[in-house]
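cron nightly-structures :: item 1 of 1
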Amino acid sequence: MKASEVTSNEKTTEQRQQRLEMNRAAAMRSRNKKKMEMMRFKSLVVELSNEKALLLQKIQQYEMLIQASYTENSMLKVEMSQLIFENSMLKQTLKY
């Protein structure tokens, strides 16, 4: 082999080695970027789960308030009916 061929082969080998190292570095950066994105997404999932739990808790509180309001409304209707009945009875007794 000629000296120029050896030098050319060495350059080619060196270039391959550099490309290989660059590809490894790029792959590592890509993996690290994906890991960071996954960590961010997992964090968002936890955050959304917490927010969902809070919203469900608020919904439950509102449902309890609505139920209490219906119950109170029903009781007031019964009281009002009794008062109307008593009023009509008083009117009838006053007629006589």
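cron nightly-structures :: done
The mean pLDDT is 93.
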